[in-house]
TrEMBL record:
InterPro entries: Gryzun, TPC11
Protein name per the record: Trafficking protein particle complex subunit 11
Pfam families: Foie-gras_1, Gryzun
Domain Trafficking protein particle complex subunit, first and last residues per copy: 374-679
Domain Gryzun putative trafficking through Golgi as annotated: residue spans: 716-1103, 1269-1385
Compositional bias (Polar residues): 291-312
Composition bias, Basic residues: 1397-1406
Annotated stretches, region: Disordered: 24-59, 283-312, 1397-1419
Length: 1456
């Protein structure tokens, strides 16, 4: 849009002038708008805002903020961006404080000051640029937009006395105090009168022009405290004659937000006056138009040739155009779009009629002469009016009408151009047409960015019949829609001779016209599209413009001589137009337009069109000589066309790419494009294919070619990314093969397409087949030069032709040599790719390990002195039958797309030696199309493995397992066996072991040198009768013979199944092979392990009986324990405190059960307690973490680590366990300890399954401090030495040790208790003394309440109730004299001791209103240790079932 005057293109708004907010030098009306700064997105800039300085304070700062608020809402754009706020906005022009509207011409005539009038812009004024026949100038619009506003607002200051205080001249006139209320200050009145007079003069001038005038008085801080401010403001308003409601405003000191709101409200209040101004302007010009004379031939004579005399003045039709245009402009400023469209269309119709040779509106009047100044001005006006009309129809949501008017404008002027001899064969026409498309595209671009929505066409859309007729290209414009001319609607047209005429009626004009109906359809020419379409049309016009200009440049090359008409060019362009066209870069303009179109189509997600535009841009870059940019665009769009299979377009792109690469010297790209051009998918003739092939061979093999001035870098091409002229694949004969055995594969190389696809034979330098195992890679090389044709090798070759005429050649390359440097199998073979042929190379792999062999890549190489080109074909996955391949290229092109795997099989007749071998494709299997991988597995072993053992096994024993191996091969083999005992949890170190000789393992275990092993390697297998051997000499096992090996498994701790894996290895000689293949057979089995013994123990506390011994006498005379001195234990070296030491004696009754199903022989059962356990654990740690030793393992998870924990805890708390008596007996009265002689071992009777053995032990537990002792302590464990009992009496395994854990002992808590000392004998009717000992092992003083309850069979004499206090760690004795009355088991009188625990009563300071708890007692009975539990009603009454009894003998006689 920047090619047209911005005044004709921008969206006009009401103009508002505000004065007093800026200085003289900042006034915007003194600065002209630079049209060069206007573009599509940035229209003419608004008036420059004065710089706001941070130093401004007070009233100046208020004015600056108000000015910014006024200017912030200026809308200077080609599109109306205000939406619904359009009626409340102005285009604000800031002016200086002394500014006043220019006086009218009438006022200047009355005052004889006409010389001060502004320059007239009327065609009647000789000083005007329009004199004598001009239409309109942009200066007129600028004057009404920037100099003659619709609203004039004067911002003034109210004078303040403080502004002169301190002045040297006026200091003596200052007042210190103001007068009383109602007294007027003369100085203030003088200044107010001057201000009112100034406002009055401005108001009068504004009224003369019809401009709405308003005044804004800005107050200062000092005015807010002045009581006379209201009177002063009223005086100024009334003196100036301003209305209080809409013409006089007061702005007190305010903040930024308040000033911004004031500016908005001020503009809204002036909007109605602005609309009235433009309304009166429309009425005034409409009246002027109606006063024009009639448009008849008699009014205006025919135009005479200009001979230098009087000039032709503007016609009546021209004045009608001026008035219509002005009314349209004022309506646009008024934001009356409907009337603006009507006036602009009327002006457009009048202007179009003026271009005709003879006018139809003014009969007899000639049209504008082509290539004149007025003709050029009128043409610009027509273009801008069309743009305005289209824009307004878009405002009114009538896109089809806007498009109709635009295309009507193009067709009309196309007809006019032909009548002016400036048709489509001239660059001037294409320049004009391209400008129209670009401007319309800019309009749509600006509109869509501002919120305009493009229409979505539907079958029921409006179809303009008149517009549809325009597409026929007819010069007869009678089908055009009607355009309002004057008060009626008239159609206009241009005949074949260029004459214009008018007809009545309208065909489809307006927003409602057109043809409707279900059969109307959608015409793409009637649908308004986005801006990209019009940018592209403009780019096409730019191309035609360049071509036409080049033709004119050839005809008129001299830039200083005007073109002369010739026979071929009777109407040449002017010298001025030629020179102007020479300054334009047509290609840059075309690229710019195509780029803008590309961006628009990309924004609207039109993928196909963006690719097309990219190709157009690339072609333009190529024409401009920017080959690198062109090549980038070609490569970018070529990827998409290649992916989607548009090979016809891709061929053209490749041709252009080759030319660009040659110009740039990118020969690697040239080779790549030529290789793709050889593909049969690229449509081309045989001659073209042959030229492409020859050019490729010339570049690769000709030394004098320009591309071969130096050696090139290796060129690697990924063939699946481009179209290939060959296809290749690798096929395995079988899906599975054995290690170290030969497996055949075939490499198949076939040309694409049919006959003529490849014009000549193409020779490869090498073929490299890469596998997942690099040691299996095969490289087939052709050492011949290009001129050599004979193949010199000893390889077997066969060739046939199939039914389609394709030549199939088979080459046997199974004898390759291994290159140690490149680590690749290599052989020499002829690698000529013949037209319409398939080359099959058969090779063999010999994998040396178990794996999955995959084909990773196939590389076809061409190596010359200057080039090293590699064509890489990556492999694809196995495609199932009916599935789609993962790429568009076919890697198995034999006979189309075969449904199954094919193998080229060579059939040789064994009997007839004269017949030649035959080739035939054979289907290998069903279901898959190709098998690009080979599974290599070890050779299947024929060895048979059996295991013999008695399950379940016992923990801690050396469990024998017999492994038998049978040779099932057809020849003797030497075998080795590995046996592995897998751990239960891999994260935990296993304590299990596996051995061959348990006796030797037991000896090394006793010596502390045994190392537990879970794997036995290299066991040499021999006949079952031969002893096991670990020698390095292997013995062959005959066919069908059995080898037998016994292993012993020792499992500890956890009773769970163990997995044992045995692997048998041997080597087998393959057929026709010198190497031997190692074969392995694996056999796994599980053995269940259970504990051999289970133990349960009962702890019975023993009552100590006192006798007349030395110890008793010493205890009677001993001091109170708390007063006794510390004692050093000589045995354990520990210091004990007698007051804290507590001793208990328990009887342990241990029951040992044989849990397993197998009988065992027990050699020894021993209780390991106290320090013995700790010492033994330390000794057993000399082995490997206690996994094996004399102690053996613990059958229930009690490992040596738990022994350590127990040792640590007993030492820390001072617990000591001692064995007092061992009176246990075994089965049949046998003692628990046996002699270590062979005779004794043979006499040991087995423990059968379920047998129960009982062992009794008397132990004493001494606690250094009972309060610190744990609740449960482990007394020890049973150490059982045993072995499995065989039925035949033969023992193969030695005795082993199992540590059976025992239940922990629960120690009594530190609480008072009683013990009783009774005499040995008691007789009836004879008194005896019973002594009750009360012990207080706690650290507190106890208060006990003692009560003695009588007994039926015994009389008691003594205290019945008493209260006792016992010190901490002290004892108290009570003697009771009893008299037995009956014989037998008699209960003594019960001594009941209750511990009194007083609960605290009310605390000191507790108020009386708080609840008081009565004093209470908590009773705790003191138990008698060693008492007998008895039943009866009395026990129920006393609450306890414990009683102390004594056996009373008769006085005479004895009990039977």
């Amino acid at each position: 849009m920047d090619t047209y005057p911005p005044e004709f293109a921008i969206h006009l708004q009401p103009t508002l002038v505000v004065s007093g907010l800026t200085t003289t030098e900042d006034a915007s009306h003194q600065e002209d708008v630079n049209p060069s700064l206007v573009n599509n997105d940035s229209p003419p800039p608004p008036p420059p805002r004065p710089g706001t300085q941070s130093s401004k304070t007070g009233l100046a700062a208020q004015k600056s903020i108000l000015l910014q608020a006024m200017l912030s809402r200026n809308n200077v754009s080609y599109w109306d961006n205000t939406k619904g706020l359009a009626g409340s906005l102005f285009y604000v022009i800031p002016e200086q404080a002394a500014y006043n509207l220019p006086p009218t011409r009438r006022f200047l005539q009355q005052t004889n000051q006409l010389h001060l009038a502004q320059q007239s812009l009327s065609p009647t004024a000789p000083s005007s640029s329009l004199y004598p026949d001009g239409l309109i100038t942009p200066l007129w619009i600028r004057r009404h937009r920037e100099q003659i506003p619709s609203v004039f607002i004067a911002v003034v200051d109210l004078w303040d006395r403080e502004s002169i205080v301190g002045s040297a001249d006026n200091g003596q006139r200052g007042f210190s105090d103001k007068g009383p209320l109602g007294v007027v200050d003369p100085m203030e009145r003088d200044h107010d009168t001057t201000l009112a007079q100034d406002l009055l003069e401005r108001r009068k001038v504004s009224q003369e022009r019809g401009v709405k005038f308003a005044a804004v008085v800005m107050l200062q801080r000092s005015h807010m405290d002045d009581p006379s401010i209201e009177d002063r403001l009223n005086f100024v308003r009334k003196s100036a004659g301003l209305d209080l409601k809409n013409a006089f405003y007061v702005l007190p000191p305010s903040n930024s937000q308040e000033i911004s709101d004031f500016a908005v409200n001020l503009q809204r209040s002036q909007y109605e006056g602005s609309m009235n101004y433009y309304k009166e302007q429309v009425k005034r010009h409409k009246k002027k138009r109606s006063n024009l004379p009639s448009t008849t031939a008699s009014v205006r004579p025919g135009q005479q040739p200009n001979t230098g005399g009087s000039q032709q003045t503007l016609s009546v039709q021209g004045w009608m155009f001026r008035y219509d245009f002005k009314m349209g402009m004022f309506s646009e400023c008024k934001q009356d779009i409907d009337n603006a469209v009507k006036f602009y269309e009327s002006a457009y119709g009048l202007l179009i009629d003026m271009f005709a040779v003879t006018s139809t509106i003014t009969p007899g009047t000639p049209g504008l002469q082509a290539r004149t100044r007025r003709w050029a001005e009128a043409k610009v006006l027509a273009d801008c009016l069309c743009l305005k009309i289209c824009k307004f129809y878009l405002y009114l949501d009538a896109p089809s009408t806007a498009l109709f008017n635009f295309r009507r404008h193009l067709i009309v002027f196309k007809a006019f151009s032909e009548s002016w001899k400036m048709g489509d064969d001239s660059f001037e026409y294409w320049a004009w047409l391209g400008k129209q498309y670009r401007v319309f595209g800019d309009l749509l671009d600006v509109g869509t960015k501002a919120g305009f929505k493009l229409p979505i066409p539907s079958p029921g859309s409006v179809v303009y019949g008149s517009f549809a007729g325009m597409t026929e290209g007819s010069k007869d414009l009678n089908k055009f829609s009607g355009i309002g001319v004057g008060n009626g609607a008239a159609g206009f047209g241009v005949g074949p001779s260029g004459d214009a005429y008018v007809y009545g009626g309208s065909v489809g004009g307006g927003r409602g016209g057109g043809t409707h109906g279900p059969g109307a359809g959608v015409n793409p020419m009637l649908v308004l599209q986005h801006a990209g379409y019009f940018y592209h049309q403009s780019a096409n016009c730019s191309v035609q413009r360049r071509l036409r200009f080049e033709m004119a440049e050839e005809a008129y090359p001299d830039s200083s001589v005007a073109p002369v008409p010739t026979n071929s060019r009777p109407y040449p362009p002017t010298l001025q137009s030629m020179n102007a066209e020479r300054a334009i870069d047509h290609l840059a303009l075309t690229i710019e337009l195509l780029t803008k179109s590309y961006e628009q189509f990309k924004r609207h997600k039109a993928g196909r069109m963006t690719l097309f535009l990219a190709s157009e841009i690339a072609g333009t870059y190529y024409t401009a000589g920017k080959f690198e940019m062109a090549l980038k665009f070609f490569e970018r769009i070529g990827k998409t066309y290649r992916k989607e299979g548009w090979n016809l377009i891709l061929t053209s792109i490749l041709k252009w790419s080759i030319q660009c690469a040659k110009e740039l010297g990118f020969w690697e790209n040239v080779v790549e494009y030529l290789i793709e051009m050889m593909s049969p998918d690229m449509p081309a003739t045989e001659t073209k294919r042959l030229s492409v092939f020859d050019e490729l061979i010339s570049i690769l093999h000709t030394k004098i070619h320009p591309a071969n001035t130096s050696a090139h870098k290796p060129l690697v091409l990924s063939m699946p990314q481009i179209n290939s002229f060959v296809s290749c694949a690798v096929q395995f004969h079988t899906k599975q093969a054995f290690v170290a055995s030969a497996s055949k594969f075939q490499f198949q190389l076939a040309t694409q397409g049919g006959q003529g696809a490849l014009p000549k034979s193409f020779r490869l330098s090498y073929v490299l087949v890469e596998f997942s195992d690099p040691t299996l890679n095969h490289r087939f090389e052709d050492p011949r030069s290009l001129d050599q044709t004979d193949v010199q090798d000893s390889l077997e070759r066969l060739s046939i032709k199939d039914r389609t005429g394709r030549t199939v050649e088979w080459i046997n390359c199974d004898r390759c040599t291994f290159d140690t440097e490149r680590k690749t199998w290599i052989t020499n073979v002829g690698l000529d790719i013949n037209p319409h042929s398939t080359l099959v190379i058969e090779g063999a792999l010999m994998p040396e390990k178990e794996q999955i062999v995959q084909v990773t890549k196939i590389t076809l190489g061409v190596v010359t002195e200057q080039w090293n080109v590699a064509l890489e074909f990556p492999t694809i996955e196995v495609a199932q039958e009916g599935g789609q391949a993962g790429t568009q290229h076919n890697y198995m092109p034999l006979q189309g797309n075969p449904p199954r795997r094919q193998w080229l099989e060579v059939s040789r007749a064994s009997e007839d030696t004269s017949s030649s071998p035959k080739l035939k494709f054979k289907h290998l299997d069903k279901g898959t199309k190709r098998a690009p991988l080979l599974r290599v597995v070890p050779r299947e072993s024929k060895v048979e493995i059996q295991t013999l053992f008695k399950s379940p096994a016992y923990l801690d024993e050396f469990f024998p397992v017999v492994i038998k191996v049978r040779n099932g091969e057809a020849f003797p083999v030497a075998m080795e066996m590995d046996v592995e005992l897998q751990s239960i949890d891999p994260s935990i170190e296993s304590l299990d072991s596996i051995v061959l000789d348990p006796h030797a393992a037991l000896k090394s275990l006793s010596a502390g040198s045994f190392q537990a092993a879970q794997i036995l390697h290299g066991i040499r297998l021999s006949k079952a009768s031969s002893p096991p051997s670990l020698s390095s000499v292997l013995q062959d096992l005959a066919v069908g013979e059995w080898a037998e090996q016994t292993i012993f498994v020792k499992a500890l701790e956890i009773p769970t199944p163990r997995t044992i894996v045995c692997k048998v290895r041997y080597e087998v000689s393959l057929e026709n092979e010198q190497k031997k293949s190692s074969t392995e057979k694996q056999h796994a089995f599980r053995v269940q392990f259970i504990p051999p013994f289970d133990a349960a123990v009962d702890y019975t506390p023993q009552l100590a009986r006192v006798s007349e011994t030395k110890a008793t006498r010493e205890s009677e005379t001993a001091l109170v324990p708390i007063l006794q001195a510390n004692v050093v234990d000589e045995k354990y070296g520990a210091v004990t405190v007698p007051a804290l030491t507590h001793t208990e004696v328990y009887l342990m009754s241990t029951r040992v059960n044989n849990e397993g199903p197998w009988p065992v022989q027990v050699k020894e059962v021993k209780l390991i307690i106290g320090s013995e356990s700790n010492t033994l654990s330390e000794t057993s740690l000399a082995g490997r973490d206690g996994a094996a030793g004399d102690v053996g393992g613990l059958s229930r998870g009690h490992s040596i680590s738990r022994m350590r924990d127990r040792k640590k805890s007993l030492q820390e708390v001072g617990i000591r366990v001692e064995l007092l008596d061992d009176s246990s007996i075994g089965l049949d009265g046998a003692a628990s300890r046996f002699e270590d002689s062979e005779d004794s071992e043979s006499n040991i009777r087995p423990w059968r399954s379920g047998n129960l053995q009982t062992f009794n032990h008397l132990v004493r537990v001494i606690a250094a401090d009972l309060d610190m002792a744990p609740e449960h302590i482990e007394v020890g464990y049973l150490r059982i030495q045993w072995r499995r009992f065989e039925d035949d009496g033969k023992a193969t395994a030695p005795f082993v040790v199992t540590n059976v854990p025992l239940q922990p002992l629960e120690l009594p808590k530190a609480q008072p208790y009683m013990t009783v000392d009774l005499p040995k004998d008691a007789l009836v009717n004879r008194p005896f003394t019973a002594k009750y000992n009360i012990h207080n092992p706690t650290g507190k003083t106890l208060e006990l309440a003692m009560t003695v309850e009588p007994s039926e069979g015994m009389v008691y004499a003594g205290i019945m109730q008493a209260t006792l206090k016992i010190l901490p760690f002290a004892n108290h004795s009570i003697q009771m004299n009893c008299y037995p009355l009956q014989a037998g088991l008699t209960r003594l009188p019960r001594v009941k001791l209750v511990i009194n625990k007083r609960k605290p009563s009310r605390r000191r300071g507790q108020t009386s209103h708080q609840p008081q708890h009565p004093e209470s007692h908590e009773e705790t009975l003191v138990k008698v240790r060693g008492a007998t539990k008895m039943g009866g009603p009395q026990n129920a009454r006393t609450g306890t079932g414990e009683a102390v009894v004594i056996f009373v003998k008769p006085e005479t006689g004895s009990l039977e």
